[in-house]
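Subject: Protein record for review, amino acid sequence with backbone structure tokens
Concerning: The relation between a protein's sequence and the shape of its backbone.
How to read it: Take the token row as a discrete description of the fold.
Enclosed: The protein record, placed directly beneath this head.
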Amino acid sequence: MTRRTGRRSYSAASLARHALSGHRCWPRAIPEDRPRSGYEVVIIGAGGHGLAAAYHLARDHGIRDVAVIDKGYLGGGNVTRNTAIVRSNYFLPARGDIADRSLELWEGLSEDLNFNVMFSQGGIINLAHSTSQLDDFARRANAMAIRGVPAELLSRDEVAALLPRLDISSSTRYPVVGGLLQRRAGTVRHDAVAWGYARAAASLGVDIVQNHEVTAITSEGGRVTGVVTPHGEIHADRVIAAVSAGSTRIAQAAGLTLPVESHVLQAAVTEPLAPVLHHVVTHGLVNFYVSQTDKGELLLGGNIDGYNTRIARGGPSPLEEAIRVLVSMFPSLSRVRLLRTWAGVVDMSMDGAPILSETPLGGFYLNTGWCYGGFKTTPAVGELLAEMVATGTTPPMAAPFALDRFASGRIVPEEGHGPKPWMYH
């Protein structure tokens, strides 16, 4: 029996030999690729979306002359700087369809990639704090049901049964009247997603080039011809930009201006605890969410910092607010110690929906503007980008997210899930 890792195959005997040698002879998990002078497709950004697109180009379309180029190290961006929540409890079909497809792919991704991405379907509960909000949740549940996505409207007592530590008394700061449950939602180990896609893509012949920043986009006759790095020019027939908050800079290099802003989004974890929370829980009035990791840490997040920046370092106010909300919801956790915090820089579009689109520059494709929701859609975005590039057409699922919608007015204002207007002022 052999195990395939990267571009090599190993027998059980060789695996044992590597282990007994103290791993001194163990080969690199990802080959240290140097860029060639040209490729059929260059993908800028070795995050989840870029790596997934490379994998699907190679596996589904037989396009293996592909390079994924990143200015830093593999998975050093937002793919490993998020709260790892996956869900598809959207109201509008445009956002819902792509999230539904992703959730379907998440469920089989470990087997597909031959790499454990640690997908855990504990479900997500959105808390309602008024009867009018519970009515809105019922409306969303009906919209999900039309798409064939199960959702359950919960009473106050049903919420209490699922979340025994939650304070549901009438004297709490935010009284709870019910909730919305999607049982198929959950969490995924984010760095495992990056490594799983990278190893699978590399095994199919994709080059993964780290520490090569793209500084310019070259073009001729209205069509992209390649990218420029400090190490030289790389020719390409087609280029995908999947760089999250770096999108505005890359777009400017291609002569485009995007309706996108960059903001800091912070998260934090507590010290490990015994299992106390078996679902992802989101607050209905404050942008707050909490879950418990496999290691026992409580993982919590809240609002963006509210100012434009490309520096992944936030201020204390959003974290303080998140902690206040956590303690108001779960008073028994008030003495739990915070272990560490981190931040990512997110690309916020003006309607809260992504840009997944070809551009006026022929052969140049954009994937940006995902706001809070980029990680959860990783598998479907990889499929869609690969199909778009391989066929030269826009898949129906990607059509609502075309770049020209901001000029035509066909925006996708996902109700209750997009950024608030005050976040931009």
